[in-house]
Amino acid sequence: MKTKSLCLLFGLFYSLISSAQYTLKTPDGHTVQLHTNGTWEYVSTNTASTMELSKEQTLKYASKNKRFTVEYDPLLWAFDTVNKDEGFQWDALFHSRDLELTAFCFETRLMLPLEKEDLESYMREQYSAIGKLVSLSSKKETINGMVLTQVDVELEVTGIPYIYRGYIYSDHLGSFQFWASTQKTVFLQDEKRILKLINSVRKA
Questions:
Q1: Is 186 helix (H, G, I), strand (E, B) or coil?
Q2: Is 60 domain-assigned?
Q3: Burial tier of 162 (Cβ tally within 10 Å: 0-12, 13-18, 19+)
Q4: CATH number at residue 126
Q5: What is the chain's mean pLDDT, rounded?
Q6: Is residue 153 part of a domain?
């Protein structure tokens, strides 16, 4: 299940950094130092690089088939690509600096149903397999000139409430999904940061 695997991934990450400090290179070419207290920071080799990284900057991620892009601030978000979870595959997994927020996107040549009832029925089936479905709703939104379907899901997993918010785009060439999720309390506290990330999606 996606949620369990994400928890397992983060648990593994924390177990690694609790035992020692590591220096890693991110897929976008930056070097980060992992600290024993669960935090991390960018490592630079000169003052100019330090000054550059201290400013807000935007990097761009291109979807698998290059039809869509996502803009993100590397000081706030990092991502891993080509992750698998029991047969399910996403193209990029974004995680916040504090590892409390996650977002994932994937593109496929397969279309998704766009009618409200059909889409919500499809999503209910998907999320009911993960946990107890508390609520699910969808509506049309226009983001960066794209007409998307916004889906909001509240899910309870092992007694803990989670919120998933996703944008879905589908046409005759296929579909693209971009989802953000975390525990409900954290989502409500950091909603602005989450929306800044997922609202950056646009056609390439």
A1: helix
A2: yes
A3: buried
A4: 3.40.1000.10
A5: 79
A6: yes
Which helix (H) or strand (E) is 126 found in, with range? helix 116-128
Range of the domain at 147: 56-203
- Phi first, then psi: what are they for 11, rounded to 5°? -65, -40
| Cβ partners under 8 Å of residue 147, min gap 6 | 140, 141, 169
Alpha carbons within 13 angstroms on the beta-carbon side of residue 7 total 11
pLDDT at 51: 35
User: Can you read off the two tokens belonging to residue 36?
Assistant: 């024993």
Read off the pLDDT of each residue in 87-96 and give the average, rounded to a whole number.
79
The half-sphere exposure of 101 on its side-chain side, counting CA atoms within 13 A, is 25
Within a domain: 115: yes
Percentage, residues of the chain above pLDDT 70: 69
What is the four-CA torsion angle of 183, 201, 113, 87, rounded to 10 degrees?
A: -60
Based on the structure, what is the number of domains in the chain? 1
* Cα distance between residue 66 and residue 62, in whole Å: 5
Q: Which helix (H) or strand (E) holds 119?
A: helix 116-128
Residue 49 lies in a domain: no
Q: What is the pLDDT of residue 164?
A: 95
Give every strand in the sheet of 40-43, ordered side by side: 22-25, 31-34, 40-43
Strand ranges for the chain from DSSP E: 22-25, 31-34, 40-43, 59-62, 68-72, 77-85, 88-96, 102-108, 132-143, 146-157, 160-171, 174-183, 202-203
